[in-house]
Amino acid sequence: MGKITIEPLSRVEGHGKVTIVIDESGRPVEVKLHITAIRGFEQFVVGRPAEEVPRIVTRICGICQTPHHLASVKAVDAAWDVEITSAAKKLRELMLLGSIIHSHALHFYYLASPDFILGPDTDPKVRSVLGLIEKSPEMLKKAIALRKFGQSIVEKIGGRAIHPVTAIPGGIAKTLSEEERDQFLKEIDTMIEYAKESVELIKSINEKYMDVVKSLGVIDTYYLGIVEDGKHSFYDGILRFLSPDGREKVEFPFSQYQEYIGEHNVPHSYVKYPYYKKVGYPEGIYRVGPLAMMNICDSIPTPLAEEARKEFIDIFGNPANQSLAYHHARLIELLAACERTKELLEDHEITSKDVKVEVEPKAGSGVGVVEAPRGVLIHHYETDDRGIVVKANMIVASTHNIPAMEEALKQAVIEIFKR
Amino acid sequence: MEDKKITVAHVQLSSCCGCLISLADTYEKFPDILSSIDLVYCQTLMDAREIPEADVILVEGSVCLEDHHALEVAREVREKGKTVVALGACAALGCVTRFSKGGQMPKPVHGSFSSLTEIIRCDLAIPGCPPSPELIVEVITAIIRGDKEYLKPFIRYGECKHESCGCDLIVNVINKSLCMGCGICSASCPTRAIEMIDGRPLISPHLCVKCGVCSFQCPRIEI
């Protein structure tokens, strides 16, 4: 018997480790993913005025603060039966897209791409963004430009690039000026171009590593994501589960998530293991995020990203079950986010000042969901008649994926040990 | 500088990683910053799995007192870092992790979080949630230059003598008749928790995230 421990997990946000137990004959018999940090946000927002919660929960994640801010404020809106104006909704959506652009560029270029650009066998000391400074400075410049563009949108609408503050129950506390809008419009075509190049880049990388992509981390799971009229959507819509064989689609509104998603506790990890309730645990484990979004949507509403999605299906099938295809899917979403950003910037309503309706705190229960960079993000609050939070439940995007990540790791470990 | 680059490690305890992202938000300058130092450990950006000895260890996040692993890491960074910097409000002052009260499944016992400055001696502490990209860069640059004068307020924050809920403004400025009503505290607050009423700051405990920026920015606090 032996045990391999990989700790800490690197080039990820957060704390985790992987343990692999090996039997006498040298075969892996157990692979576990341990998530080893917890701060308890669900507990400590209880007792606070609900309108302040969106500013606190951003601190759950320093990379995807904006989705937390927005899912949270949507949950408060829902609890208090507030219908926000269409201009406010568009501004919030634009802020979310800014965050998606920043995060997708960060995830692929800063964190994941060194494995491919520098190669998996490169010295770990060099195999990071540091190595890219030497090897691919031009590529890195474009990645930085994408991040800067995305974060600047968040800053202009959200007040701050990290931990934005402007989304409030009833709308948003800041508008976008025409000058600011014009500045972004000047840059957006370049960003779309960079996003297109990103898709081309991942296609050439995949060609080089296709045997790895199609053999490591390949598992069948359910898939979950947001659709609006069946189409890919970041900010609003309904949730859709897709079965592993791609045949069955089940749709439900955000407010009913508890009827469809269960949470299972395991002793070795500090996160709960979500599963599709109608199937049970562990058969009902599912994936969220870009890969799941490619699978569950009927189409992407913007032309370049839709074309890229069709190519993606040709390469990986539908549903695509290869975990390493996430990168490709992520860059298609980057393109989709850039295209949608342009649509919103060209919408005359984006500079509207009609962004706030009156709200009255009251007793209620509300669910707010957005598509965060890692996938479906759920915030659910119950408030008392003074609008104080009495109960909170949050399922953050990466949490949905944890059980599937563990399965994918198992499959990859077994495959690697065979070789 | 032609000398050997200083070795820098970035270690994350209980935090959101926003401080490191803030450093990345130097955008075009980020590659230059990384090239100007010898980054030897940063779990979020690279694959080194052991914290090595380093000239500077930037620690982000607070310390969970019920988590022996976190306490061990805190001790390890003190042993291995010549200069330990509490980077950002969680490490410097506790920030939102001060709200924690445990009770969350599946690890309900994790409920007490202390700032790193309370757990180990920190040479410097940078408040802010997150500290601005410029501030982080300036501090790193001052460490490289050995600019003690610039680092003075950060050394003071490292000594952990300060509350961070706006009450330090009341105790150290208003009660001492030092407040001149400039409103810098209010302007610097990232959650708009401070309103200027009759020329004095009125601090809302509901909005404050305990980041420490208000008193750090106050021009009337003795340094």
TrEMBL record, chain A:
**Recorded family membership:** Belongs to the [NiFe]/[NiFeSe] hydrogenase large subunit family.
Pfam families according to UniProt: NiFeSe_Hases
Q: What is this protein called?
A: Ni/Fe hydrogenase subunit alpha
- Locate the residues binding Ni(2+): 61, 64
Q: Name the UniProt key words of this record, in alphabetical order.
A: Iron, Magnesium, Metal-binding, Nickel, Oxidoreductase
- Give residues annotated as binding Fe cation: 64
The keyword Chaperone is annotated on this UniProt entry: no
Which species is the source of this protein? Answer: Methanothermococcus okinawensis
Annotated binding of Mg(2+), by residue: 42, 394
| Cofactor(s) needed by this chain | Fe cation; Ni(2+)
One Gene Ontology MF term: nickel cation binding
NCBIfam families referenced in this protein's UniProt entry, alphabetically = VhuA
Gene3D superfamilies in the record? Cytochrome-c3 Hydrogenase, chain B (1.10.645.10)
From TrEMBL, chain B:
List the gene name.
Answer: frhG
Q: Which SUPFAM superfamilies does the UniProt entry name for this protein?
A: HydA/Nqo6-like (SSF56770)
Family annotation (PROSITE patterns): 4FE4S_FER_1, 4FE4S_FER_2
InterPro entries (UniProt xref): 4Fe4S_Fe-S-bd, 4Fe4S_Fe_S_CS, Coenz_F420_hydrogenase_gsu, Hydrogenase_assoc-protein, NADH_UbQ_OxRdtase-like_20kDa, NiFe_Hase_small_N_sf
Q: Which organism encodes this protein?
A: Methanothermococcus okinawensis
This protein is called: Coenzyme F420 hydrogenase subunit gamma
For the keyword Oxidoreductase, the answer is yes
| Protein family (similarity comment) | Belongs to the FrhG family.
- Residue ranges of every copy of the 4Fe-4S ferredoxin-type domain listed in the record: 170-199, 200-223
Q: Which UniProt keywords apply?
A: Oxidoreductase
- A Pfam family in this protein? Fer4
